[in-house]
Design a protein that fits this description.
heterodimer, A: alpha/beta, two-stranded parallel sheet
């Protein structure tokens, strides 16, 4: 199924929760979704027989300075088509529902986005830091991150 | 060799009537420098800890394999710090790893030596600028005897580093009055 058809299917099902299609310059095209609707849209994308996006290839955080985004790259092994899904989050309270009950592989990638961007995935099974030490302060891939001078007595 | 009177006795064989020998191979006494002997033993059995944290570890494996064969310097790998004399820090050290490096170093028995292999272990290398997670040189964590430059160093460079460490070990003073 083409990106435009997927977008229209989602738009017909979820209405205003599906905001727009970013097609130009994106491969795959991205469907922009309201943060609160991410879990319902994800479940529909996975379970609808005409879509059946069974593989979450990548889940990434993005810092746009004035806002954050979480981008999902989805692929269907059955239909061999792909789509992106994106949710924009306010900088002050970056949080959205987890999708680790839809795609279990999301857990590690959500933990990475939490670790490095501080994006909170509500309802996650296990949301801890994954790369940095447990007692690290701040989220280093944020654009406004200030480097500490020392970590445990070693200069950073 | 039979003892034929026509050819005299073999050299080094004491004559039956000459009494106990006091010099030569029969003497059973060797006089020498204790430091020289101990240092020679230490430099000839540099068992190194397998501690490969990045791509330098691939060169380390290559240097230990048959083509470059570090075994001929007495350097064989150990999988535990408790049997190691030498820590070859082969790769990038992050702040999370630095505590493990220190703990492994503390577990090694004295005397112990450290070689920092490659740019990352020397200075942080390509991660020197704008990296929040990489330690800018393993000498910030543990004392280092020899730094080997390179990214990664070739096995020849690693062997040169080990030979330099052997020269350093041969200059150590273990006994007698400290200057």
């Amino acid at each position: 199924m083409e990106a435009q058809a997927i977008f229209e299917t989602l738009k017909g099902k979820f209405g205003d929760a599906v905001v727009e299609l970013q097609g130009e310059g994106f491969s795959p095209a991205f469907v922009v979704v309201a943060p609160g609707a991410v879990k319902e849209v994800s479940r529909f994308l996975k379970e609808d027989p005409a879509l059946s996006f069974d593989a979450l290839m990548c889940l990434s955080g993005v810092d746009y300075k004035e806002k954050f985004a979480v981008a999902y790259h989805l692929h269907s092994l059955k239909h061999r088509h792909a789509i992106g899904m994106k949710a924009f989050l306010p900088r002050e309270t970056p949080s959205l529902p987890t999708v680790d009950d839809v795609w279990p592989a999301a857990n590690f990638q959500e933990r990475e986005a939490f670790d490095l961007f501080g994006i909170v995935f509500e309802g996650s099974k296990d949301l801890r830091r994954i790369l940095l030490p447990e007692d690290w302060e701040g989220h280093p891939l944020r654009k406004d991150y200030k480097y500490p001078d020392f970590y445990h007595g070693i200069k950073v | 060799m039979s003892s034929d009177p026509a050819h005299g006795t073999p050299p080094g064989t004491p004559a039956a009537s000459a009494g106990p020998a006091v010099t030569g191979p029969e003497a059973h006494v060797m006089v020498g420098n204790a430091d020289l002997f101990v240092n020679w033993a230490r430099k000839s059995s540099l068992w190194y800890l397998l501690f490969a944290t990045a791509c330098c570890g691939i060169e380390l494996m290559q240097a230990g394999a048959s083509r470059y064969d570090m075994d001929r310097f007495g350097a064989v790998f150990r999988a535990t710090p408790r049997q190691s004399d030498l820590m070859l820090v082969a790769g990038t050290i992050t702040h999370k790893m630095a505590e493990r490096v220190k703990r492994l170093y503390d577990q090694m028995p004295e005397p112990k030596y450290v070689i920092a292999m490659g740019s990352c272990a020397n200075t942080g290398g390509p991660f020197f600028k704008d990296s929040y997670c990489v330690v800018k040189g393993v000498d910030l964590v543990i004392p280092v005897d020899v730094f080997i430059p390179g990214c990664p160093p070739r096995p020849e460079a690693l062997i040169d580093g080990i030979m330099r460490l052997q020269k350093i070990i041969m200059q150590k003073k273990n006994y007698g009055a400290k200057a």
